Amino acid sequence: MGFSLLENPFAVLGLGTDANPAQISGRAREVGGDLASVASRALISPRTRLHAEIAFLPGLTEKEIQSCLSALASGRAPEFSMFAPLSRANILAHLASSGNATASNLELLFETAPSVRQDALEILNRGRRSAAMPPIPQPMFDSAMEQLACLHAEALSDGALALKHGADVLSEIVESLGSSVTGASVFLRQTMAAWERATASEGNTDLEGAQELTAKLKGAPDSATVTRLSSVIRAMAFRTRPVRALAHHFALPHDASAEMVDNWRSLAVDLVKEHKALSQAETILNLLAKEFGTSDVPGQRVARDLAACRERIASGEDLPEVARFAAALDAAEKGATQFKGDVLARMAMDSRGRYNTLTIVVELWESFIAVAPNTPSDGPWKALRAFAVRLHNDFSASESALALTDLALKHAYGNSLTDEVRPQLEADRRLLLRHILGRQLTTAVEKKRRGAARQLLSRMIPLAENDAERREYTTTLRRLQWQAAKLFVSRSFYALIAFGILYSIVTDKSRTPSIGSAPHPTYTPTAANPPMPVTAVDDGRELQPPPGTAVLSRSQLRWCLFQDARLTAAKAYLENLRTSEYVHGDAFNRAIEIFNTSISDLNASWGQYRYYTADKSAVDAELSTKASVLQAEGQRLGASGYVTQPNFPTPQIAPSAPPATYSPPAHSVAPQPSYSGVYVDGQQDRRAWDAWVAGLIGDFRQGADWWAGVRSTANPPPCTKAPGTDRVAAVRGCSEAKTRLAFADRRRRAEPDYRSGWNNP
Fold first, then answer.
1. Which residue from 124, 122, 104 is spatially nearest to 112, judged by alpha carbons?
2. In this structure, what DSSP letter does residue 660 have?
3. What pTM does this model have?
4. Domain residue spans in the chain?
5. What SS3 string covers 355-417?
6. Structure confidence by residue, pLDDT tens digits, 32-45
7. Cα–Cα distance measured from residue 403 to residue 362, given in angstroms and rounded to the nearest whole number
């Protein structure tokens, strides 16, 4: 027993604190034995006598002393309310150390111990005067009282350990301190140090067992192991509760508890990440929040993870169907390239009931069908929609994205869980369908399949986003229908003429040879060749024809064919831009609108004109010699229409706005203002470059800027050296910039006027 009044030298000899050396020696001889001899020597020495005095019952009469010792020997608490604070504290410390103290006794010991100095020195010196001994020096008294405070703290700790809920008693005592730091706070700090020493051995044993349980759970989690670990967590929380409460009183963290909580929280996170064991992780996190609290930083992390875990449990993530769908979606994310094209649209069962496509595709399809009627949340629909968006935006797999969207919508109708996501899926379907039809429309226009183009436009009109777009589709459809009608009439008319010529040849051998005709470009119907005039003036210029049906001059025909070549190059530029993940949708759509205007202008200017075969041959020869120049002009024309504001986020919603191909027979690219001269060429190329760079973001732009800065050095480094957090995006930005600047750099080095225009945009 740590603190015992029954073992005090005065109690052994049956004397009070006022006994003189002669009485002490005489009583030792009367009692006899080793204990009496040791007690006698302790009381004769001034220093050890002082420790015996302050740890006994100073100021009490011999009768009171015998009554107290008798009660304590029988395990009872004597009546001590009228005693001095020092005697009361010693009696309470004895009860606590012997395990006989109640919670009220412990609280009274805490209240009394800090005040034991009150009148203590005076009472002790009074007894010494009766014993004809010198008074106690103040320094010796102070030192002895400090040692007594440690004994009282040890006793309070022992008393709490003897109680079943002793940790709660100590915690309540700490909470009673309030916010101020007093002598009682210092006494409690000594008590908690004793508590930690007393519980250290059991705590270390439990922690070693917890490490074994943690390792077992990480390998193969099971409920029985979680139950055993929960018992350890409760025991450690019980042992550390008083110490944590006192640390909170002093506004200090309890590092040992914080480390334990973090380790167990990490275990719960690993259970979720590695084994999807949500319920077991929730058990551990809930116990940590309950036993250790959530007011400090580790507790706040526990509360956050617990909320996330419960949210995932509420979403049904721990259900087998949800787990299967999550695994299938994860595999699909890693193998998204297998969804390119219309692999889902063509998916069908063979005669044996097996799908005729890849396993990863089939598993995603079937797992969603399985999870849709069982999930308690709309998570699967949102996840499938996000994957469909990625297929469209990142892999141009619009057909597969449309098939997944249709699948999600099929299982969304009549399901109250999907009220939020269903409108998004319906909007995705419209945009995807518009994109696919627009792409097919472009192919139909390029291959002159006017019948297919009319059918596609009929399907696109109900999908238009606004009235302006709907009018555009309707007008284009009517124009194609009118052209088809005129073509039918024209062909019928020329068939009659051909029949008449054939009839003339048969009936008149002296027929006059006819002038040949050349094939007509895409933008004009068939044209007859009028008689060639005797002289024709060609000044090498390009003149835009006015509206009408007259015969084109060579300058007017040159404008039409050259403009057609420029727009073809501009179309290729914007088609390449459309597939980039860094394209800005608003700027791109503005470029498309401008380009469609240029196409309409070309169609209106060309119209139903006719031309001479000789002029067509001459201009075709010029086209072959100026192909590279016209291509560069077309690229500048396309770039000039694509102007963005810097630092806009890359659009990641599915699908993107309709491309240029939505307004046939336009080629779907954007125009450029007129220009002249090598100097102006440099200016226009520099403006196109600045506009393109302004529309970039992140590491892609950093790579482009890096190449622009190093390309003029003697030996520029390769793009693989481009800096950036996302190295792939930085290298891609550098490579794209290198391609775009190659033509301009050649002219900049070879042509001073071009270089001057480039430097003065």
1. 104
2. G
3. 0.47
4. 9-163, 193-314, 320-461, 464-507, 676-761
5. ECCCHHHHHHHHHHHHHCCCCCCCHHHHHHHHHHHHHHHHHCCHHHHHHHHHHHHHCCCCCHH
6. 999 999 999 999 98
7. 12
